[in-house]
Amino acid sequence: MTTKVKKITALALAAAACLTSVTACSSSGESGNDVVSSEPPATFNEEEQSKIEEIEIEGAEKLENPLVTTLLADWDLNPQKGKPKSVELQMFENVYGGKIENINCTFDERFTRLSTLIASDEAPDMFSAGDLDVFPMGVYKNIFQPMDDYVEFDSELWAPMKTINDKFMFNNGHYVAAVSADAGVVMIYNRRRVEENNLDDPADLLEEGNWNWDTLYDMMKKFCDNAEDQAALDGWWFESAISLTTGVPYIDVVDGEIVQNLDDPLIEKAQNYMLQLKNEKLPVDKAVNGWQVNPSAVKAGKTLFYPVGIWALYTSTFNEDYGDYEDIMFVPMPKCPYVDDYYLPAAITGFSLCAGAKNPEGVGAYLKCAMLARDDETAKEISRTQIFEDYHWNEDMYEMQQKIVDMTAEHPVFEFYNAVSAKLSDLVNNPMKETFNNGVSWTQTKESMKPAVQAEIDKVNQELEKIKK
Q1: Which DSSP category does 299 fall into?
Q2: pLDDT > 80? residue 46
Q3: Which of 390, 425, 351, 454 is nearest to 92 (CA)?
Q4: The pTM is what?
Q5: Domain range enclosing 264
Q6: Could you tell me the sign of the dihedral formed by the alpha carbons of 390, 391, 394, 395, in that order?
Q7: Distance in angstroms (rounded) separating the CA atoms of residues 128 and 422
Q8: If pLDDT is split at 50, 70 and 90, which confidence band does 96 have?
Q9: HSE toward the beta carbon, residue 35, CA cutoff 13 A
Q10: Nearest-angstrom CA–CA distance, 394 and 396
Q11: Is residue 4 domain-resident?
């Protein structure tokens, strides 16, 4: 692949910082107590530190209250011992005298723990918005507040993210500060296994403008051999991701109002495509496998693709699942042939400001550092080096990452069914997978779920309307 190397993104920076610095969350989940990392973080070498210190932040002043308590999550902004800090964290410490203290917990208890801390007047300052489940739920539940007094969303610095951040507005206030956007799901594969099966390399198809639902289908048909236990797809993320390539989410937020698109003909086309794959026995039959997924089957040559978030490639052991480092590759979701533009499911690196936050100014200062690190050439080069040294990416992976970032930025699509209410998530998440997993027609599924979906949407919209008044 000869795609020109472009820039490292803030999502890559955040993933590099976060996924290598997770503290012992298991004890948090068992005891309910907060776990704060006691491991001293690594530092940059003298040359890198000197370069970071040269990055200027206009109008920056030391914070009166430099401590920022953040992230009720199963990951940590502070790195583990032996791992470098992210550039933005180093800048935050250098320029503002800031410090970030993480309160870690299990993924499932984030919102319960946040509500408890807010009620006891111990609210943290920041909360990760990267899971796309904070807005609009956090608005009507009063657990987040607008960030506009602390983040200059209309400034030149934030201009690259304006369209995306405006998506998370309600009542003229921004409830998410997204620093970057990237592909929500990528298709991971093993190039050596693709070559062994005499298949076209998906990266080459993408370069030729020919990576779409049809060419994916052709590859899957040629690869699958049920007698040899070879399947095309595994994992939990394909169903929603392929549907979002139509540009139409199941649940959307438009001008502060929640809407459902279950009757949209493009969603029906995506569902019919998945039904075809299921009827031809192309995906792994998860029911037969006890509803367990097996990414390591890619390495073994038994599964062709493993669609998953790009975060799966920011671990120190991803080669154990997908193959030798030099053989691992990925591409974006294939283009929907029924639309003119190339839409991609989008993920963000970003944060929300908690209700009752004691240090909102510190949140704004940290986010300013994150935006500067995203676009500063020195910061980008340092972070690029970290990706190769810490995660052993090959050059083609890096180039593909940059290409996908640019593609996603052109036409990002966000899915909101996990961000409205737990009930709405249950009403949509599993039913929309019935076609792919169990061969149930979309017409049947849609008609059975639509009344309850609309009732829940109407209920939440009424709560949001009260806030407008």
Answers
A1: H
A2: no
A3: 351
A4: 0.85
A5: 186-344+415-468
A6: negative
A7: 18
A8: confident
A9: 21
A10: 6
A11: no
